[in-house]
Specification:
The chain has helices at 6-18, 26-33, 73-80, 118-138, 144-148, 156-164, 212-230, 236-250, 326-329, 341-353, 358-373, 390-395, and strands spanning 40-46, 52-55, 67-68, 84-85, 91-97, 100-108, 169-171, 176-182, 190-197, 200-208, 257-265, 270-276, 282-285, 288-292, 297-298, 311-314, 319-324, 381-388. The protein has 398 residues and is an alpha+beta fold. The chain is globular.
Length: 398
């Protein structure tokens, strides 16, 4: 964009307004910034359960109805992370923070404007990109943006846990990481973590024993100890030792955490991992589940039992690695039958074959688990999908 481009001026205006705008005034600030363009905008955020796109309220404007993510044009724009034009001339542009899907920007264009004009689309994407960063950053300063994403009250355990987690999706040129947790309003002992530094991707999936707040507190201690060790340069052994020590320093009642910790060299695909009493990650290659990573076994953390050596594996280009907690495969239907690993692997193969963005693959897998169990169980069910693929990483970006 040139310095005289009206979209550039709107973008610069929004940057200027954003420094002191409170969270609940963000929609009005965006409207004011794009006014000279002659467009009307509405910001939608995906709800916590990723079923609806909910509009952010703006004073003086009627609040639109929420939009379904499944089976709607705006929903397709969100799930595919790709701008879509409606027959009425409106543009639906994904709102992301980096590569994490947050929602949509509805853009009503002036009469005669072409929604397929590259300059218009580039301008809309630029505004939507800045909106994504602002939604993410402003959420820490008020409750309105969080409230807009919720359809009901959140349990204390879930409120605490969500504050500890990194964004659900992260990607660079060669690798994408995405995660999902259910039940999102009641999740207790499940958690995940990742960090990319110096070409090494650190991953963790944890499951604290029990349910509710006690499980969350157990997992929170383990997760925080893991990060403290990792951020001082500690590798897998040091992280495991720190988690063991932290858990045993707080409790002597036999509580424990199962976990998978892994380190992936993103340049070579080499993996080192430890499995502390957790379900084995599944390796998917050329769209097929080829094997489970069964090495690196040791007892759960917190029991102070002897450990073995880390396992090793190597990814090939375009490989995926699916990590999950037992609440996924052990989910039971009304008749008591488990969801099972074969069903999970089959669904993962089908969705990956559709070349969906990683967060959408997990959203659909999570929906399948939830539909299977219905109200028969509310165990935590967490999944993390790692894609060692430039093409896969590009799919999570609008």
């Amino acid at each position: 964009m040139s310095a005289v481009d009206p979209w550039y001026r709107a973008l610069a205006d929004l940057v200027s307004r954003s420094h002191r705008v409170p969270p609940d005034a963000l929609p009005a600030a965006v409207t004011a910034a794009v006014r000279e363009l002659g467009v009307a905008v509405t910001i939608y955020v995906a709800d916590v359960e990723q079923e609806l796109l909910r509009p952010l309220p703006e004073p003086g404007r009627p609040l639109p109805e929420p939009l379904p993510i499944d089976a709607s044009l705006p929903g397709r724009a969100y799930t595919e992370v790709r701008a879509r034009a409606g027959q009425d001339g409106r543009l639906w542009v994904p709102v992301v923070d980096g590569t994490e899907r947050l929602g949509l920007l509805e853009v009503g264009l002036p009469v005669g404007a072409d929604p397929d004009d590259p300059a218009v689309r580039d301008g809309c994407r630029a505004i939507a990109g800045l909106v994504g960063h602002l939604v993410a950053s402003k959420s820490a300063y008020g409750d309105g943006l969080q409230r807009a994403k919720r359809s009901g009250p959140m349990a204390v355990s879930a409120e605490l846990l969500w504050q500890l987690l990194p964004p659900l999706t992260f990607a660079v040129d060669t690798v994408a990481v995405s995660a999902i947790l259910e039940p999102c309003y009641e999740v207790g002992g499940d958690a995940f973590d990742y960090a990319l530094d110096g070409g090494r991707l650190a991953l963790a999936v944890l499951d604290g024993v029990g349910r509710g707040l006690p499980a969350t507190l157990t997992t929170a201690v383990a997760l925080t100890a893991l990060r403290a060790a990792r951020r001082t340069g500690g590798g897998l052994a040091e992280q495991i030792a720190a988690m063991e020590a932290a858990l045993r320093s707080q409790w002597r009642d036999g509580r424990f955490v199962t976990a998978v910790l892994a380190e992936i060299e993103v340049d070579t695909g080499r993996i080192r991992y430890v499995n502390a009493g957790h379900p084995a990650p599944v390796l998917l290659r050329r769209g097929r589940a080829v094997r489970a990573l069964t090495g690196g076994r040791r007892p759960p953390l917190g029991l102070n039992l002897p450990a073995g050596e880390p396992g090793e594996a190597r990814l090939e280009p375009e490989d995926r690695l699916l990590l999950y907690t037992d609440g996924v495969t052990e989910a039971r239907d009304a008749g008591g039958e488990m969801f099972g690993l074969p069903r999970l692997a089959d669904l993962a193969e089908r969705h990956i074959g559709s070349e969906l963005p990683a967060p959408e693959t997990l959203r659909r897998l999570s929906r399948a688990v939830a539909e299977y169990r219905g109200t028969a169980s509310r165990d935590d069910a967490t999944m993390v999908l790692v894609e060692w693929s430039g093409a896969a990483a590009a799919r999570v970006q609008p």
